[in-house]
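Study this protein:
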Amino acid sequence: MLEFEEVSKNVQLLETKLVELGNSLNISKLEEKLKELEEQTMIPDFWNNIEKSSIILKQINNLKLKTEEYKKANNNIKDIIELIEILKLEPENALENELITSIKKVEKDIEKLEINILLSGKYDINNAIITLHPRSRRN
């Protein structure tokens, strides 16, 4: 049997952490920028400049990824809160297992968002090539 007060507190902490991540990512500004870029793709001569259009499409995909991950985690937390309320009224083992699985998934989603924040610099969407050269050891 789950301790619902403890689970509720943990979910509230996750929700608070997600809100902080949303503020760090500045989700509303990202959504505005996404809308702006998508409007640019509607301009008739947008596709004439392949280099510029590919850069904008890459930006759109990156912004969509960030905003959709945040929204998905936010919706999942809301679902978890509803599930907790249902389980408080009528405990059921199958739903408790679903709750535990959902909480673990949200924790992973939030961890992924944290990594996105760490890698949200100007050049972090680009690929990197790393070359390692072994050093010879001299006696």
